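Appendix C: a fully annotated inverse folding record. The material below is reproduced so that readers can follow the format used throughout the book. The structure is listed first as tokens, followed by the designed sequence.
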């Protein structure tokens, strides 16, 4: 639990300098009026996971995520991302796995136009896993996400997350090396607030 508190404090310290910065003039044709103050996203997620210890033992999970983005400047944002994924009968067994990631940190967006916006982000936080392998196991651990994607504005209040691809690293105990390197692909809809 102490690791999660430290990770949250570290993410807050990363976001603080941008919060204190004045609103900059954006590059290209995007104007400050085009940039929403807040973005709330709802996504479908596909995970390619290797949580079973040993060789790959890879499997897929499906789920969803919610993101809150606070645009501090045209380029920099603070992000909160909570993702849920579930898989039944992993690799033909009776094992079911549910993973929840709760991550926070900075996002950099390249705003050359007001319609398409590529972004990159690095988030820290935690992961929670619930597994019914022989008996129910419920564990919390440290998590990191690094990745990015592209959004597109449909209307002033609605955008789409065309695609987001992320590497998700977690330290959930697995009786071997306590490490998971997963890939997450997401797509969804974004609701914009505070845009003129």
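Designed amino acids, in order:
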């Amino acid at each position: 639990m102490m690791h999660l508190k430290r990770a949250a404090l570290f993410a807050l310290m990363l976001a603080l300098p941008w919060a204190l910065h004045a609103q900059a003039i954006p590059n290209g044709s995007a104007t400050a009026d085009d940039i929403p103050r807040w973005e709330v996203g709802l996504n479908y997620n596909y995970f390619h996971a290797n949580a079973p210890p040993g060789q790959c033992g890879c499997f897929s999970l499906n789920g969803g995520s919610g993101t809150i983005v606070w645009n501090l400047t045209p380029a920099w944002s603070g992000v909160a991302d909570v993702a849920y994924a579930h898989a039944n009968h992993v690799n033909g067994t009776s094992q079911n796995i549910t993973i929840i990631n709760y991550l926070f940190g900075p996002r950099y967006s390249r705003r050359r136009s007001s319609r398409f916006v590529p972004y990159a982000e690095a988030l820290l936080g935690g992961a929670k896993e619930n597994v019914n392998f022989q008996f129910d196991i419920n564990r919390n651990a440290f998590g990191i996400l690094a990745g990015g994607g592209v959004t597109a504005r449909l209307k002033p209040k609605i955008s789409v997350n065309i695609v987001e691809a992320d590497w998700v690293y977690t330290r959930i105990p697995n009786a071997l090396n306590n490490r998971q390197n997963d890939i997450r692909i997401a797509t969804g809809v974004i609701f914009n607030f505070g845009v003129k």
